[in-house]
Amino acid sequence: MSDGSIATWLSRNHWQKWLIWALFIFLAYELRDFFFVAFVTFLLCYLVRTVVGTLSERLSPGQPKVWLDRTLTMATFVVMVCLLFGVASWIGPRFVQQCRALIARQQQIDPQAAFQSLLDRTVGSVLMRREYGGNTSERYKTALENYQNEGRHGEGWYAQFPALDSHLKSGFEAQFEQAERERIDRQVRGGTKVGNQFDQWFLRVKAPELFAQRRETYLAQWAAEQTKQPNREDETKPIPEDHFQQTRDEAIRQRILGDVKADPVTFADLKNQWEQSLVALQWLTFVQSPKYQQAFRDYYQQRHEENPVGIPFSYDIYLELREAYPNGKNAFAKVVQRSLPSKSKESAAQLRQDFEMATREQLTSQWWKNDPTAAALREHASEDLPRVVGAVSARLEQLLSRLLTLPTQLATAMLLTLFICFDMLHLREGLGRLRESRIGNFYDEIVPGLIVFARLIGRSFSAQALIAVFNTLLSLLLLWFLGIENELLLCMFVFVGSFIPVLGVLLSSIPITIQALLQPDGSIGLAIQAIAGILLIHMIETSFLSPKIVGKVLHLHPVMVLVILAIGEHFFGLWGLLLGVPVAVYLIRVVILKEPIPGIYEPARDSSAHQVG
User: Fold this and answer.
1) Cys-Cys crosslink for 154: which of 333, 517, 520, 525, Cβ 3.0 to 4.6 Å?
2) SS in 3 state form for 526-587?
3) What pTM does this model have?
4) At 486, is the secondary structure helix, strand, or coil?
5) Residues 396-410 pLDDT 10s
6) SS3 of residue 519 by DSSP
């Protein structure tokens, strides 16, 4: 390396650029928790400005007018809000219900039972097909007849009943219990006043706990106060020990109550606990009421009508089964056997379903005990399975909880979008004046690159959004046609996965497959149909939509895409998966190679415009 090149490499401008970009990347990393609001705000601004710019250019070519720009901005924003409100009103309540149901289901899940059900419906189905063939084969018919003659009808449902019961309770909790709890909570918090009720609750529940935690300290304080008080004649008389301790403890609890009320923070926390205890008490009372029982009956009958295969029993039979289940398999089977007429079509279909569930469980148990492959799984299942399921459940519950806060974040992003777009022309002029300020070097280094990067992100995500909407709508039709539950929630994964190259279709297929396997009427056949439908949708997307809509803007080799996604996910999580490829395209094609990207980046034109502007 020559002396001149070394001097250039060590020049102040070179290190200044590195320092500016390092500072920018560091700030972006530190603010990654605010990415959602910032990113959605950017996309909405890009969308609004694209529409406003197009309309403004047609209505007033040449010089932009502030009044026209603001009028078009408000009109576009109103239309966008109306569309979002309409969509949210249509699918919002059911989407929230499905999120809450899945959260409740995750809290009640038994890892071993879920793993056993997964094995029964995958390994068990394969083994049963191999052992007995289809339901038209002679082996199948003979085994079914023996199953019925042996009086085993009900064994299959006995194994599946806990999962069915949990599924129903979680769904009912999401649809009814949550709303009823919130109603009781509002009633309690709006209709109770702090007074004697709180004092009585505190002295009965919380004061003994606080007294026990610092007993010696409180006793010492009480004794010190007693020594400072003058003795009266009636106090010189001997007092029974039990009465003395009761009086002393009551005085100390009253003092603790006074100390709590003197501390606003502690008092507010305890008041909240008191209100929650009232809510819990009223809820327990309400659970025993006829209104609650009727609500659950109505919910059960609705689900029974929607899914007679997965929930084949009437409500009264279901109550009998729930009562008989703790008494063992024989008691449960007796209720099942008398639940339907012996020669009806429904009884024959239920018998086949029960036979298949019991046979799959039996074959899976034999495989689990004797197969070498199962032996390898057993070494890890007992220790790793609860930990893995717990971690996945916690991550899923966290994700679903965040989805429930989505309306607030979207509202914040839309408000920011309105403020930014409404005064965009003046903001653009103000940003242009920064070139003449003391941070001109920072502006010259960062802003042109950010403009190109913003164009790339806006263009690519606008194109991907069209594809995501297409994939989501087709997936929704597929799930509805196949009868797969939680369709709106699953389609949310499809929508997000559509923005992730290569891995997106795989990541969104996993929860759909699991749902198809584990729902009450789930099976490996249903999962295979779902996978086939997803692959067909993906094939249509990659063959027809992506080439026409996205083109080669984000084209990278699949191996490089996987490497980029792995690195992005490690450092930025979901945002690394969503933005990893656009960032890599920008760095490779703009920063390193300086290749033109049609409609987004033209090196000669952008550099000349930068020099003029």
Assistant:
1) 333
2) HHHHHHHHHHHHHHHHHHHHHHHHCCCCCCCCHHHHHHHHHHHHHHHCHHHHHHHHHHHHHH
3) 0.67
4) coil
5) 666 666 666 677 777
6) coil
